[in-house]
Design brief:
This protein is mainly beta and 363 residues long. The protein has five helices and 16 strands. The strands form two sheets. Strands 1, 2, 3, 4, 7, 8, 9, 10, 11, 12, 13, 14, 15 and 16 form a 14-stranded antiparallel sheet that branches. A two-stranded antiparallel ribbon has the order 5-6. The longest helix has 9 residues, at 150-158. The protein is elongated.
Length: 363
């Protein structure tokens, strides 16, 4: 099965006033913050002629959800490296998972998003007065879920053991009782970007400075998994088995390994599995108002050196970028379960639902 996934396209538009360090509020998009600002807007590949930027490794992670509170005593990067600390490691060497680490909220449309970016080795430099270049590697992992109602979220959190947390306490589920969920989706994706950036000083006269930029990306897919349905009726029977009906469940995944582990190991520069290829491009521009009468433009006869940076600072700037335009094409499998009134038993690995078992699964 050849599955095409179009990367999310984002449009960034920002207007900033002068700030110390030439940084915009909340985002690294100043004149002296390459290489990270170049990922927001490729025009920022163009920086001072006196500066060359070398990045070895940096990582970032963010998530948002209305479904649960996350209160792990171990930060995500240590968690990924299985460095739980002596107070949070059980006798098997796995995480000693406590229920208060992950507490559900009672919401009817649970959704959540996770994004992890790892900035690998990269190099950015000005070649001459007009042109700047950059190249390097970045890895991206993400996961999302949406459309999960409160009962389904409870089952996903605690699993199908009828003696477990899903079937006890407030809002407990009942065994052998049918529950329903409308359309929902759960997805995870991991890939690498090998990029080349080019920026050009298009205008530098009087107070006006304009730079434009492009980033070209070759993409190596690392894994994908997704579970979708437009409707689902389910119950857990006395044998702790999950039974479903009235559904069009579809599971897509690049391999059996990534279907179960793409969420377990989203961090780091992973070269272990390639499941497809793709391509992408970023485009952007930045206008800067540079009011100093003592500044040198790119057309100046004399050399622009470090002492001229202060005179070339902007009082305000305006920029726009269109990023992550492209595609990823993957080879994988698609399994589907479509039925109406017939009941089917879904055989699955219990660690895929029960978050306690999932956290204690060696990986």
């Amino acid at each position: 099965m050849k599955r095409k996934i179009t990367l999310v396209t984002t449009f960034a538009l920002f207007l900033t006033a002068q700030l110390k360090g030439q940084q915009s509020l909340g985002l690294q998009s100043g004149n002296y913050s390459t290489p990270y600002s170049a990922f927001l807007n490729p025009a920022n590949t163009y920086s001072s002629k006196s500066r060359t930027y070398v990045n070895f490794y940096a990582a970032s992670m963010g998530y948002t959800t209305n479904a649960f509170t996350y209160d792990f005593p171990v930060n995500p990067f240590r968690l990924n490296n299985r460095n739980f600390g002596i107070n949070h490691t059980n006798g098997s060497g796995n995480l000693d998972f406590k229920d208060n680490f992950l507490q559900l909220k009672n919401v009817e449309n649970a959704k959540g998003y996770l994004l992890n970016e790892n900035f690998g080795p990269s190099f950015f430099f000005r070649a001459n007065r007009f042109n700047a270049y950059g190249f390097g590697i970045k890895s991206v992992s993400g996961a999302s879920f949406n459309g999960i109602n409160a009962n389904t979220a409870r089952l996903m959190r605690y699993g199908t053991d009828t003696a477990g947390g899903a079937f006890s306490g407030a809002n407990a589920l009942e065994k052998d009782k049918w529950y329903s969920n409308d359309a929902f989706g759960v997805d995870a994706l991991s890939y690498q970007e090998w990029f080349f950036s080019w920026a050009y000083a298009a205008r530098d006269e009087r107070n006006s400075f304009v730079k434009v930029g492009f980033t070209f990306k070759g993409i190596l897919a690392q894994g994908q998994a997704g579970l979708h349905a437009s409707s689902l009726d389910y119950r857990v029977n006395s044998n702790n088995e999950l039974e479903v009906r009235n559904t069009d469940l579809a599971l897509t995944h690049t391999s059996d390994n990534t279907a179960s582990q793409v969420l377990q190991d989203p961090f780091g520069m992973n070269f272990s599995e390639n499941s497809g290829v793709g391509a992408g491009i970023d485009v952007g521009f930045v206008y800067e108002n540079r009011p100093s009468s003592n500044r040198k433009t790119i057309h100046s006869n004399s050399r622009i050196n470090c002492s001229n940076e202060k005179a070339n600072e902007y009082s305000w700037k305006f920029g726009a970028s269109l990023t992550d335009i492209g595609f990823i094409s993957m080879d994988g499998n698609r399994s589907s379960l479509t039925n109406s009134s017939n009941t089917s038993t879904w055989n699955y690995a219990s660690s895929l639902l029960d978050q306690k078992a999932y956290a204690q699964t060696p990986f």
